[in-house]
Write a structure and sequence with these properties.
With 263 residues, this protein is α/β, with parallel strands linked by helices. Helix content is 40%, strand content 23%. A 6-stranded mixed β-sheet has the order 6-7-8-3-9-10, with helices on both faces. Helix 6 links the parallel strand 7 and strand 8. The chain binds adenosine-5'-diphosphate and magnesium ion. The site of magnesium ion has 3 residues, from helix 1.
Amino acid sequence: MSEPPNHVVELREVQLAFPQKTVLDGVSLKVEPLDRLVIMGQSGSGKSTILRLILGILQPTSGEIFFKQFEITRLKRRKLQQVRMQIGMVYQYSALLSSRNVHDNIALPLEELTKKGTAEIDRIVDEKLELVGMSDSKNQMPSELSGGMRKRVSLARALVMDPELILFDEPSAGLDPVISSVIDELIISLSERSQVTSVIVTHEMESAFRVGTRMAMLYQGKIIEDAPPEEFKKSNDPVVRQFLSGSTEGPILEGSKDAVATK
Ligand SMILES: Nc1ncnc2c1ncn2[C@@H]1O[C@H](COP(=O)(O)OP(=O)(O)O)[C@@H](O)[C@H]1O
Ligand SMILES: [Mg+2]
């Protein structure tokens, strides 16, 4: 067995093949402590799949996935559940339970995964709601909230176990540009205040450059560029250049069916 890494997350030569399609074809990535790694790529390129692999919800066809010293793919169910508690997840469409109010949505992980009493749970929920600026909404139902407010609540829920790592799946999906920048600012301030490492997947360039301390570009199953933002902007890779410019001219439309279907 190879040596465990000194990173918060590391993917080594990860392949994931579904019967119809190889989604990841040798993806290697390292996420350092306090990084905000942005993984960019077209719709259908496998971004959400990478997050599911890090959470251990999906198993790779081959390759290794580490969270700190743990090799996710080798953990037994019970241990995997313990390790997962150190990872917060913010889903693309917030994924709040519609039958529970804001407080109860955020309290849920604490109720299910810890032995904490009601008073302590209430204190933690209040603290996290305060962090995302949603203290006044704790008794509201998700259906009474705007998309941006729901996103804030799902951020509070991701923070509730004091995770070391937070995974964000398209945090600005479905939000208007102003609210989307507000959420990006919140992601930055929360990551800094809570000293948490994050992996953010998105296909939105502006958002990517706002939040990222490091950028990786996924294309046809591989990471074709991985660099700090300033360097990434200067990439000579034709696919990255086309993605940066949003141009219809370039390899993306020629090389990929997905691009034609989704762009
Ligand atoms: N369980 C699955 N079975 C078969 N194909 C899947 C499954 N999950 C995802 N895919 C395929 O994998 C590709 C990548 O999906 P996804 O990671 O959701 O892309 P992204 O998040 O970048 O839009 C898509 O083509 C999708 O259809
Ligand atoms: Mg996705």
